[in-house]
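Appendix B, Record 12. Input sequence as logged:
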Amino acid sequence: MFLPVLFAGCALVSSALASAPDGAFSIYAYGEGINGLKLFYADSIAYLGSASPTGASTVTDVTFTQNTSTLYATPSDTTLNWTLDSALYVRPNASYPLPMGFSAATASDTTPSDADIMGFYFYGNELLWHWKGPFWAAETDQSGLWILYFDPLDSSHDNMTTVELEYTAPTTISKERMARRWAA
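Logged structural output:
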């Protein structure tokens, strides 16, 4: 009796430890005041939202592919000449949160020396770094635009909100569909 229950439990755990979806995918953030904002690239920094940061020279949506524990980014703007494999990174060696970003996409880009591109895993559809989460987001002075952070200490921060990162896109339901749904 014990053995079948143990195997059933292992099957449930292994199904929850799903890998990233096959092929390219986007990443979305969910948290207080953040309902499915897409992660995107702006001058090597990871942003959330739909507005371009003021003063940014290179802004593009990205899709990701996972190879082992690294999330490689591909720009949706095909005019960009990314000559290197850019990957999402965290900066875990700091004693305070630092912005997440993308490793060098061209020879003229720089990547912080403490950036770590390895250690990203999915638990179900939620992204974790070395099985840690959540991530943090700080709103910029532009409405609806957030910078993504990782805090190795996972402590509370003023002017930041915790976010879960997922590959599940937010669902959209039209006003007409909602009206029909509630009228029934």
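The chain has two helices and 13 strands.
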